[in-house]
Design goal:
Two copies of one chain form a homodimer.
Chain A (H helix, E strand, L loop, with lengths): L8 H12 L3 E5 L16 H16 L5 E4 L1 H5 L3 H16 L3 E8 L3 H11 L10 E4 L5 H14 L2 E7 L6 H4 L2 E2 L2 E2 H13 L11 E5 L4 H10 L5 E3 L23 E5 L1 H4 L11 H20 L3
């Protein structure tokens, strides 16, 4: 069953940011070789993943605003993994977290409609609060996601400038002097124009990697009505100080994701008995770092 | 268990084309509202999908070279649908068909590695012979797929110019006079350069919609070492005559996909008792049409 169905996605997300005093999102990227040993043992990998995801959710639920389960790691386990992914989403929503399904889906329109049904529709098998989407197909490949998001109070985060080293090969290519990711931002702004909430933000956000300081600021100026999802903070090398340009005048308008640096924090704290304590501490530390950036210190 | 593990993907695909005298691929896109009534009834949607997929496979196995199950339609049914997708792949491979998993996956490198494990690795939960991949992340987002394909004799089809009406919004944008999809073709050629088989084709193919006649010819000339996967034939409006430019001198080098026009052919043949006969007839008709094109008539 769906929870959190009331209201507009961006409004709901920003309200949660204000209430919790956090713009942090924790990525749930389970990998068998990195899990606490106590969660493996005789369990199936999918069961270990779900137990770990539950532990992460329990550790951070009151501290951060959102979690972002990465479907690829669950998908690698086959159908059982997909069931663990579905249950992870339910568990996180029940814990009051905004859940961003990180699936980067997109296809031609009629096929995107099936993905939208899976990942956004009430009753969909993997229904989260928001979904990451790839823009390569253009408007008709994204439209079914926009429609489903509007119908069910959900959100999208469309890839603009991704955090990986090669992102520039395609995303920075210049057309009439503008890099492709800026053209994509123009599309994102248009795609969100029909779904502006009372916060002034639309249901169609943009993904910009924390690893790209300048681009973050440029996208923030181009996309005044889109919430930015900023991955790549922490293990991928994005630094807190580089994020200043991502926020609006109220120090909101962006949420920052860290995956490995938070959920595997216990690996650097070998004497700690409970892996959840290490995760909780890392999430609290992330909040503090982001607070300093948001306060301009 | 894996079958067909021997050899190089492109060589294997071209051998199958020669042996069967076909360059046709049938897309398996199950939709509950379009299935034969006899397959629904008291069955769960996922069971209906699997039965239908088995029927399609049985009807076309000796006629066409490949099938392309579209994961989005299975994903829309949640974990049970994903199980039906996995079983569809196994069933098609057992029937001697080359299976192209149509999932259009891509992410940053470490995440793409998980998708490659799921969709290409021997023993992966959804392991097909080849996978469709989105190029937006650039080289490091595609590299794990290339590596897994090389290690296990599998293939990729990277999106160049997609069949949908809006594809031009991003893919046709000009940079230094060249449309983006041509730049992507340059990357695809590079990505395939380490995996050229005895056929002269690499394991890294390209997707170009049948709805784009001129672009098909241009991509064929740019990508002499990549097999083209050409969707959009049939229901999406691509015509046989427009495909002439997709083939090489031996009338090979491309496979053409039709989904709805083949698998739902029985809906235009209401008096026919067996839906498989209608599918079989449509597949045979597709082979004949493509034969005429390939012979230049």
């Amino acid at each position: 069953m769906e929870t959190n169905m009331a209201g507009h996605f961006a409004d709901r997300l920003l309200d949660a940011c204000r209430r919790k005093g956090s713009v942090a999102c924790v990525g749930i990227d389970p990998r068998l070789e990195l899990l606490p040993r106590a969660l493996c043992g005789r369990l199936s990998p999918a069961t270990s993943y779900l137990r770990f995801a539950r532990g992460v959710i329990e550790a951070v639920a009151d501290l951060v605003v959102a979690v972002k389960p990465q479907i690829a790691f669950f998908e690698a386990l086959g159908p059982d993994g997909m069931k663990a992914y579905a249950e992870t989403i339910i568990c996180a929503r029940e814990a009051g977290l905004v859940v961003i399904g990180d699936a980067k889906r997109a296809d031609i329109g009629s096929t995107s409609a099936a993905y939208a049904e899976a990942h956004l529709a009430p009753g969909g098998g993997f229904s989260a609060d928001a979904l990451t989407v790839n823009p390569y197909f253009g408007t008709d490949g994204v439209a079914p996601f926009i429609e489903e998001a509007a119908a069910s109070g959900k959100g999208l985060f469309v890839l603009a400038k991704t955090s990986n080293p090669s992102s520039g090969e395609i995303q920075d290519l210049k057309m009439k002097g503008r890099p492709l990711y800026e053209v994509v931002c123009g599309l994102i702004d248009k795609w969100g124009s029909g779904s502006i909430g009372r916060s002034g933000y639309s249901s169609v956000g943009a993904v910009v990697g924390a690893t790209h300081k300048e681009e973050l600021g440029r996208v923030r100026r181009l996309l005044k009505r889109s919430i930015l999802l900023v991955p790549g903070y922490g293990a991928q090398g994005g630094k807190a100080a580089d994020l200043a340009g991502a926020f609006d005048a109220e120090a909101l308008g962006a949420i920052v994701n860290s995956s490995r640096a938070v959920i595997y924090a216990y690996r650097d704290a070998p004497r700690r008995r409970n892996y959840k304590d290490a995760i909780r501490m890392a999430a609290a530390g992330m909040n503090e770092e982001l607070d300093r950036v948001r306060r301009g210190r």
